[in-house]
Structure formats: C-alpha cells, structure tokens
Amino acid sequence: MGDNKRKRGPKPKTPVAEDTNITTMDIQYTNPTIANDAVSVPANETATDPSSSQPSRRGRGRPRKTEKLNIAASPERRSLRHVDQNGDGGHALAVVSEPPLMFPSWENVARVVPAMEAVVKVFCVHTEPNLSLPWQRKRQYSSSSSGFVIGGRRVLTNAHSVEHHTQVKLKKRGSETKYLATVLAIGTECDIAMLTVSDDEFWEGVSHVEFGELPALQDAVTVVGYPIGGDTISVTSGVVSRMEILSYVHGSTELLGLQIDAAINSGNSGGPAFNDRGKCVGIAFQSLKHEDVENIGYVIPTPVIMHFIQDYEKNGEYTGFPVIGVEWQKMENPDLRTSIGMRTDQKGVRIRRIEPTAPESHVLKPSDIILSFDGVNIANDGTVPFRHGERIGFSYLVSQKYTGDNALVKVLRNSEIIEYNIKLSTHKRLIPAHINGKPPSYYIIAGFVFAAVSVPYLRSEYGKDYEFDAPVKLLDKHLHSMAQSIDEQLVVVSQVLVADINIGYEDIVNTQVLAFNGKPLNNLKNLASMVENCDDEYLKFDLEYDQMVVLQTKTAKAATLDILLTHCIPSAISDDLKS
C-alpha cells in the first residue's frame, strides 16, 4: 500500500529580486501630509492590466499566490481586491477605480517652507591679529557659513562667522553671484552679527523670515544652512530636547539657549532653525563634540535674537547684555537660612561679592539676600518660574533688560526687607573675553614688550587649553579677580627681545607688572605715559614673584630704536596708546 502512495514533488520556487524598493530623493519634503503621499513601488512588479485574465491553475496543491502592488498609505490610493472568476477557484486582480494618485507640484512644495529662499551663504576673509607679536597680523584665511534675511534689508549670521573680517560676501540660493556685504553690528556675547548689502540687485525677489515664539520641549525644528560636505543648501531636522541658560562659547557668557538633536556641522553656523509652521525660532551656533554624545546642537532662541535687533535699533549700535554685578550663593541649607534670619516663607540667594565697577555696588552689600528681581520671587537655588512646569536661572530676567535700564531689587538685610531701584550695566572683566575687533595694544622699551592680558592673548600664548597651561596666578586673576576701576587692565611683560641692554632678563615671560618707580599702575596706557615722561636716572619695574627690573633711563630709550630696527617693528607704541 505504501507503493501505491503518490509522492508530492517540490513546489516551484518563485524568483525573488534582491532589491525590491526604489526610493526617490529628488524632492525633500518638510510637510508630513505631502510625505505620506509618496509612492513606493517594488522594482520587480508591475501593475496588471485588468482586461487580461490569467488561466486558472488546476490540480493538487495550493494555488499560486498572485503578486500584489504595494502602495504606501494615501487617501487617494486604488483598491486591489481578489475576485473569483466563473466559480472555478482561480484568482485574479480587479482594480476598483478611485481618484487618481496625485504627486505634489513644485508650487506646493515652495509653499511649505516659504522662508527657504531667505537663507544665504556667507563668505568671509579673516585677518586675525597676532597677539603674541601685536605689531603684526596673522596670515589671512577664508571661511563659509550661513545666514538669513530679515526685514529692513538686513541679514543675520553668527558673530564668530565674521570675526576679524577683512571682506564679507553673500550669495543667495540658486544664484552664482556673490555680493559685497557690510557689517553693521557684532554682538560678541550673544554670538550674532548683522549685515547689509548696498547692491539693490541682491534684494530683488528675496523674502525675509518671520520669527516665531519660543518653542516647547519636543517641538519639531528644522535647521537650514550650508554645512560642509556640499555646496547646496542642507536641511536637517530634530526636536527641542532642552531649554536652559547655556554657556555661549564664543561670547564667554551665559544666556538662554535651546538644545536640539538635529545635526549642526561646520558651516551651519548662522543658519535659521524653523518650526513646523515655517517660522524662525533660532540661529544655529554651536554643537557638542564628545565621544559619549551624538547629535547635540545648540540654537540661539528668539528672545536673545530680538534683544540684539532691538538693541541695535534703539541705540544705533550693539551695547550688550546687562548683568547684575554680584556673585551669589544658594540658600538651600536650612541652618544657613536660620542663621541669617530668614523666615520659612522667605526664599532667595546670598550675595558673596559685588563688583566694584557695578552701579549696584553703591547700594547692595555682601551677605544681603536677594529675594526678588523686578517683582519675580527667586528660589533658594537661584531659579525663577519660566513656563508651565519649568524653572530657569534668574539671570534670564536680567538678560531681558537693556543696558541702562532700571530694575527693582528686593533684599533682606539684618532681617529687614529693603527695595532698591538699581541701574543695570554690562560686565567689566579684569581680563576681558574679547578685544572686540580692535588691534592689540603694546608698548616696547629696551626690548621689554608690555601687553594687556585678555582671553585671546592667553589663547595665543598657550593654545586652546590655556586654562590648563597658563601660569596659575594669571588663571587665578582670570577666574576670581575683579576690576577695581572701569579702565583697569592686567599688564604683563609679554617677552624680552634680546639685546645687550637687557642681559639677564631674557627669561621673563608673561609676568605681571605691579608698579613703576614705586607707583602702582592702572593700565598699559598709564605705564607707557609714566615711562615716556620719566626723568629719573633709572627705570624700575616691580614684577610679580618679587622680581625687579632696573634700567638706566637714557641708555634704555636710546637702545629701543635699534631693537625696533632689528625686529622690523614699525613703532614702539601702538596707535591706541599714542592719543
């Protein structure tokens, strides 16, 4: 009986193509409704003509499966159904007619992101000063970044994109012409620069962006710009993942910022970030590069942008972001609050130090408790209410003010509540974070090169890791010392140009000058004036670490000219110190 059993042969195999999907990238869609209408057609399948029927397959075994046409979900797709023909069990495709599949037109795509044409490419030639050799400049170099058009025939980009600029050009999307631009204002702290173009041809057919409100967490953002990797415009998308007071690397300050997970690469700087309604919500300006993180970019939000624009419109120039010139301490410890006399319902922060150059130094005192700023109560951790369910550092309230504005500050002093109406101003640092595009100052006498210390100077001398490599005493002054007057500078002997007159002093490098002929000095201009007008027999410089430099006055001044000729230095004193 086993011999009479019919054996079933192997089923025929249907060949399968290796690559079954073809994706077209000719159009970049930013509207989800348009993206859903895209069609994906398997490469090895074609639609069957409904008029042609296939003969039914009879015999044992399962009927051969009919291949189907895969269509992405769309409100206007066609329905494909299996129908039984003549009751013979065979299957074929029948097409039920519905409205035809519609592809988006270029006109519709253009309406999705109308401000895309407002994004421009910025070309800049930089010539940085050589702060180690302040009488000359470094070799020029070129860079490219992004920008966008706003109202009033103006363009915004990043401040670091045009820093130390010699020439700036702009190119519109789809154009081959580069137009010369003029820098109207540079906001170093907020890392924003404003440009304009005098050529009327540049503004023909150019639309400008519209600013939107501050986005919420998880809101979609699209960053547009001209990053490295190509010459055409690039679009990356992500969501807002964090919003807080950020450290602005270029400005060496802390302002409100957005963290997004969209890629921000070199060249994206200055490009706009749009929300899902096509409104500009920020400017891309920096990213976090670390082996433990991926796709962390930062955007300058609209409140900071509008502050920069309105500051320029109000004053005709950029005046900066004001600060409250105090260092404060959190009051989270209950014993600390009790010892100062705070009630349980009182909250605030304790003033540790007050900057002598700040206007509020005349009314506020150390150990005062700041309870509120402009009517907004400050918590013991230094935060204030921001939005629903969010808190932010109270420095955000200060940054919303303009230079010269007044603010009402409520403090607790000796268990008594006092209100002060203080005037806000910009921050005066003993070691400034920037030289604001100005040529560096220097003074030379007998081969001794005197210079004023700044963060760019430290970076020039010790590299980008100057915070680890610079002398400890300079770093201590950079981090903790406060300027006692508005014009105070930290003056150092930068180097000694070797000559016969300065034998034995060759190893003095970046050492602070404390006094000249027994008189303390305030800044570099003050030192140059005292030396030039000195009639004493000797020039005596008191340096840090109890060092002393003594030179004969007549011999030192006579030797200076020969030293300048030897080192091809045009002048012994920089132009800004001559006046």
What radius of gyration results from the CA coordinates?
35 Å
Question: What class would the helix/strand composition place it in?
Answer: alpha+beta
Mean pLDDT: 83
Distance between the termini: 121 Å
Strand content: 25-35%
How many beta-strand runs?
29
Helix content: 10-25%
Put simply, the count of helices is 11
Task: Report the sheet with the most strands, covering strand number, pairing sense and barrel closure.
Answer: 7 strands, antiparallel
* Morphology call: globular
Low-confidence stretches: 1-98, 103-112
Q: TL;DR?
A:
The chain is α+β, with helices and mostly antiparallel strands and 579 residues long. It has helices at residues 32-35, 106-112, 302-315, 334-340, 395-399, 455-462, 466-469, 472-480, 524-532, 553-566, 575-578, and strands spanning 79-84, 91-96, 119-126, 141-150, 154-157, 165-172, 178-187, 192-196, 220-225, 234-248, 253-260, 272-274, 280-287, 297-301, 326-329, 349-354, 369-373, 376-377, 383-385, 391-393, 406-413, 416-423, 442-445, 448-452, 491-496, 511-516, 519-520, 538-543, 548-552.
